[in-house]
Amino acid sequence: MNDRMQKKFKQWAIIASALFISLGIVFLLVKTSVVSDKKNDIPVYPLAYKLALVQSQDRSLAFRSIQVIEGYAPDYLAELPKDYYRIEILNGERTLYKGKIPSVITTIEENFSPDDETAVEQVTKTENRGEFDMVLPYYEKATKIRFSDEEGREVLVVNVNSFSLEKPQTKTNYCNDGICADNENIFTCYPDCSQKLRSFFERSD
Amino acid sequence: MLHAIDRPKKRIKRVSPSSGKRKNGNFPFHPDLKHSENYHLIIANQGEIYYSEDMSRKKRRATFISVRFSIFIVIAIIIGAWFFYSFSQKTFAAASFMIGTITPQNEIRRGGELAFMVSSLNQKQGEELVVGVEYEGLKLELVSVEAANIGKVSWKEADPNGDKKRIVVSGVATTDAVGATSTPFARVNFRIIDQISPQGEGFTEVCALFDVIEGETNTPTPTTFQQSPQQPPQQSPSPPDSQPPTPVSNLDRTLACIPLNVHGSPSDKLDILIIASGYQDFELFLSHAVRAVSEFENTNLIKYRREILDKINWYVYNHQKIDGHPLSKEEVDFIAMESTTCPKDRFLILEDASDKISGISKFGVGGIVRSGSFQSQNFIVSAHEWGHYVGFLADEYLSNTLGLGNCTTEPSDADPRNDPCPEQEPYQCSNKDALEYKAPCPAWDCSKIDCTPLMKTLYQGSGCYPRCGVPNAYRPQAQSPMDRSMFFPGRTVETYQFNGPSLYSIINALSRYQ
User: What does the domain layout of chain B look like in residue ranges?
Assistant: First the structure.
């Protein structure tokens, strides 16, 4: 009986040890490879929505077309002080993504002349966007894309699931392209993601 | 008669063949019993069954034991490594140091200097001395750290503790100090930027020591804090703890999107893609790209790495690899506005035009810098344009355009009238430290507006100087990267320091990035 209990105890000790080691390996993998604590639920794959929009003089927006393309989309996380649209990508009423884009383009052009300190030409202009394309992160489960102004008034809604969007075969996202994409980590693509390991050890010091 | 059959499925009972004794079973020993490598010999003879010693069981048992042993070894190594790591961390106890003020109490007042002396106890010659100094960031502004009694000290910023800022001071003891004798180690000079009691009561509470764990990152920076506002900044080496972009020679030209200065995943950072326009020489373009990013190391943004610089990834669009030829203007425009090959939240087009010192910025979209802007180390046109297209900053020189957070139209109560740094001959500042400019404009006066803790910290020291885009607007600092003083002989240290409201605008713009 004692022998049996001893054997059972040993077996449980081995199982517990293996579990401990496994958890440690998982923890290490998570901290060094898996992207966590994102502020936005940015999708993993290098696919993006490409929207063709038209802005009127009154800054209302009209939809022209949408397609799914391959590539990196801006994340539009910058906080804009004024003159912007809010963008939300929704699955039903659940927000998958939110960001901001400028609703007008303010351009400053400046030509300096150090040989003549008095001379500087500076031109500032603010223009509506007119017809423009924009690239947004792609979400498999997105149902609509909503644009609203600074006061929160809805400006445009694009019902994504009313279009049959064909996903292209991705080919530009590959290991050794210089980008540690969200679907890469230091184990699957060390050349692109070695920065993550350095950052991990710097943070843990 | 011996019969060899497959190993029985039920639990094997062991019988020692040599002793002839029964063990764990009821079957007697048989003289013809033989050991088997892989299977039990079950001997049926006259209805009796005999089990031989199971060699495969022996092997399995041995394997089982070795696996368990290996697991225990691994665990022991992990635990041992953890202990080694823990015990290898030397702690420099603050109890080995003491701190006291050296500024006379009757001289302690707002706006004035407040100096502390950090002394070491029980030091030995040649011993490395490291101590942490924590101070109230809202009450004190660090001016300098100087060696007191030893040859040289160095210091570096450490992670803040809430409102309390921290630095780590280190040096090497040049003498022995045994027993209760204290030896001056470092003098830490502050400027008081907030109200404290007239008698200086409680001022010791604004500064304290803390233990430092060896092995923290970043090498120390030099101690001397050159206050020479009349001298233009020399091209001095970057502070040792700065993180300049990858040198040109180390850039990986096999990559489609060449990382120039990358701090994390594209989805967590503001990604700025540098694109070549008009460059026939790819290497020249790369050198200019590095130059464009290196400019930030010459500004005060290096003090805000976590809040600003480390939130930005810089990539170079490798047109040599992707397109195989210098880019046309149409191609450049397409890459800037529409291409998705590389991460791109903003673009920076570098235009090969050595005769032009100019830039174009589209707020929140991207910028263009012409290569003549790189002809002098004093010019930081790339950083200036970045202030526009990332920081949403306005020009502070006369441009007939009223800007955003770094300009305001309401003067302070002092109502300053004359610009102390006029954009005319002799292009020098005069009297810029006069009291009439020191009071902040109401837009940056936390006694008049509701300020967040970040605003309180950044708006400290803001003044009110006439001229900010238009003559009747005001800027918070006499000179900055957003004016034209970088081109004038009267440029000073301030020329390369973004002022508080500008920093607030930039930090706020990047607040959602990690």
Answer: 57-88, 94-222, 248-389
